[in-house]
C-alpha cells in the first residue's frame, strides 16, 4: 500500500470521526429538570421539514406562537397554539405527554413524537417525527421568546438541521406578520407578564382562570380544536357574547 494512500485513508478516517462528535455536541436532547424552562409563550422563528407535505405546511405559516403550561399531572403539559395560515388564524390546544426527554403530542389525527433540543438562550427547539394519515416525516422547529432570532445562531441552526439530515431549505418567519390574538392573554395580564408579543384588545376579563374553571376552558379549547375555528383579526367573539 502506498504511503499516499495510507495518508489519504487516515485523513478520511479522521474526517468521518470528526463530524460525528460535532453533531453530538450540536444536537443534544434537552434534559428537563422541571418544565419551567419551557413554559410560557414562544414565537416561531424557523422551521424545517423533510417531507414535501410538511414543507408545504410550513410554507403556508405566516406567523405562529405556542404556549406551554403546567397541568396537575407533572408528565402532562398543555400546548396551545395560534397559527396564522394564509391570513386566517387557527387556534387550538392539546396535551403533551412528557416521558424522559421524549414528548408526545396528538393534534387531530396526527401524532408528533420528539424532543426539545439544547439551543440558544431564550430559545426553544423542537425536533420530531410526525405522523399524519399515511404520511410520516420530521419537523425541526425553532421558537424564541421575542420572535426575533439572534443571527449568530442561524449557522448553528443550519448545522443542527444538517446533522439531523434535513434538506437545506429552511422556512423562516418574516418577523413582521402579526401574531394571532390569544384569548388567554388577558387572563395572564392580570398577573404580571412583562412582555406581550401581541396587542390583544382587552375586552372582557373572564374571572375564570384555567385552574379555577377547567370545565369551561376545556370546552372552549376543545371546540376550537375540533372545528379548527378560524378567527378574524380582531377578537370580536367576546364582545358578541356580551351583546347577545
Ligand atoms: C389537559 O390535561 C389536564 C389535566 O389532565 C386537563 O385538565 C385539561 O383539560 C387537558 N386539556 C386539553 C386541552 O386536553
Automatic annotation (TrEMBL):
Source domain of life: Eukaryota
Keywords of the record: Glycoprotein, Secreted, Signal
Keyword Secreted: yes
UniProt GO cellular component terms: extracellular region
Main location: secreted
Subcellular location: Secreted
Matches recorded under InterPro entries: Calycin
Statement: the UniProt record of this protein carries the keyword Electron transport: no
Signal peptide residues on this chain, from the entry's feature table: 1-19
Biased composition (Basic and acidic residues): 189-205, 218-227
Protein name: Apolipoprotein M
Organism in which the protein naturally occurs: Coregonus suidteri
Amino acid at each position: 500500500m502506498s504511503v499516499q494512500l495510507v495518508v489519504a485513508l487516515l485523513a478520511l478516517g479522521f474526517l468521518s470521526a470528526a463530524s460525528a462528535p460535532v453533531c453530538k455536541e450540536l444536537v443534544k436532547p434537552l434534559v428537563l429538570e422541571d418544565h419551567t424552562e419551557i413554559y410560557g409563550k414562544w414565537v416561531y422563528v424557523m422551521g424545517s421539514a423533510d417531507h414535501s407535505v410538511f414543507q408545504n405546511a410550513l410554507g403556508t405559516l405566516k406567523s405562529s406562537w405556542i404556549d406551554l403550561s403546567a397541568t396537575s399531572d407533572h408528565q402532562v403539559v398543555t400546548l396551545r397554539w395560534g397559527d396564522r395560515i394564509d391570513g386566517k388564524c387557527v387556534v387550538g390546544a392539546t396535551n403533551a405527554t412528557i416521558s424522559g426527554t421524549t414528548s408526545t403530542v396528538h393534534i387531530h389525527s396526527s401524532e408528533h413524537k420528539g424532543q426539545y433540543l439544547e439551543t440558544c438562550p431564550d430559545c426553544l427547539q423542537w425536533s420530531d417525527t410526525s405522523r399524519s394519515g399515511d404520511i410520516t416525516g420530521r419537523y425541526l422547529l425553532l421558537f424564541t421568546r421575542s420572535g426575533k432570532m439572534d443571527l449568530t445562531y442561524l449557522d448553528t441552526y443550519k448545522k443542527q438541521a444538517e446533522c439531523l439530515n434535513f434538506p437545506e431549505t429552511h422556512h423562516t418567519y418574516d418577523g413582521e406578520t402579526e401574531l394571532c390574538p390569544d384569548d388567554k392573554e388577558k387572563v395572564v395580564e392580570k398577573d404580571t407578564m412583562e412582555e406581550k408579543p401581541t396587542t390583544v384588545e382587552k375586552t372582557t376579563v373572564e374571572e375564570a382562570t384555567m385552574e379555577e374553571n377547567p370545565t369551561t376552558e376545556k370546552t372552549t379549547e376543545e371546540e376550537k380544536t375540533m372545528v379548527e375555528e378560524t378567527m378574524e383579526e380582531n377578537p370580536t367573539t367576546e364582545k358578541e357574547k356580551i351583546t347577545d
